[in-house]
Write a structure and sequence with these properties.
Number of helices: 3
Strand content: under 5%
Shape: globular
Distance between the termini: 28 Å
Number of strands: 0
Structural class: mainly alpha
Length: 49
């Protein structure tokens, strides 16, 4: 789903997005499992703690 990565890149909400992208790619976690940006942000914050 290239559009997900593109939207993440264009949004550039926080440095955590690139980390989340690389983590998702490495773990091969389907991005569609994230139902909302808030959910993704929460998981990213959790991961960075």
């Amino acid at each position: 789903m290239p559009w997900v990565y593109w939207s993440m890149e264009s949004a550039d909400i926080s440095p955590g997005w690139k980390a989340a992208k690389s983590t998702a790619v490495q773990s091969r976690t389907p991005m569609r499992r994230a139902r909302s940006r808030e959910e993704v942000s929460a998981s990213v914050v959790d991961h960075l703690k």
